[in-house]
Amino acid sequence: MKFTFGIITNGSNDRLLPLIHKSIMGQNIDDSFEILIVGGRDLGLPHSLYIPFDENIKPAWITKKKNIIARKAQYPNLCIMHDYFALDKDWYSNFQIFGDDWDVCMNALIMVSGRRFRDWTTWAKRCKEGKVTPLPYTDHSRTHEMYVSGGYFCVKKTFLLENPFNEGLTWGKGEDVEWSDRICKKWNYKCNPHSKVHLLKPKGNEVPYGTPEQGCEI
């Protein structure tokens, strides 16, 4: 499987970028891969392409950055992440086992506390619970009620080019919800929980779900 890793940054987490880069380089990927870093400043990280971005045009313009990754990517599988996620050491080997039969794919996202971040979840306005609800990673029966948390996800290059993010929205304006609403009736959305991803800083405002082993237990 060939991946383009796209990292969204504005320079505020420069101390974390080398850790993210190391987690990608440590995957021992035999096939070709690339790392695109959009925004912030060029740290000179090897095997990566820095793409300058003027943050003053529209602050927190992450939708534009994600669409740039889709256009610039060489490879069919995109792993798009904000600048505070790092890959587990077995991320790639587990993805090889899982395969690439998906349009959009979520992985298990693990907070610093060891609990689940918003990964495989329904969305409040589209689900019977009326609130964001974590699902067992094996439950693929409710993808029409789900949304993709914009901080980290995998997506096919062709799918994102055909269904770009709304560049009229910025960070914190529900850009991931709007995108999910638009594509949820036509996506092949799957969860690969074995390719784990770790947050590198606390996210205290996020709902503390259960541990990955607990599934959707609170």
Question: Can you describe this structure?
Answer:
- This protein is of the alpha/beta class and 218 residues long.
- The chain has one domain (3-203): Spore Coat Polysaccharide Biosynthesis Protein SpsA, Chain A (Alpha-Beta Complex).
- The chain is built from 5 helices and 10 strands; from the N terminus they run βαββαββαββββααβ.
- The chain has an 8-stranded mixed beta sheet. It has a two-stranded antiparallel sheet with strand order 7-8.
- It starts with a strand and ends in a 19-residue tail after the last strand.
- Residues 206-218 have low confidence and may be disordered.
What class, by secondary structure content? alpha/beta
Report the sheet-strand fraction. Answer: 15-25%
Find the count of extended strands (DSSP E, 2+ residues): 10
Q: Note the run of SSEs as H and E.
A: EHEEHEEHEEEEHHE
Instruction: Give the name of the CATH architecture.
Output: Alpha-Beta Complex
- pLDDT < 50 stretches: 206-218
- The CATH superfamily turns out to be Spore Coat Polysaccharide Biosynthesis Protein SpsA, Chain A
Residue-averaged pLDDT:
91
User: CATH top level?
Assistant: Alpha Beta
Radius of gyration: 16 Å
Quote the distance from N terminus to C terminus. 35 Å
The coarse overall form would be globular
Strand order of the largest sheet: 3-2-1-4-9-6-10-5
Report on the biggest sheet: 8 strands, mixed
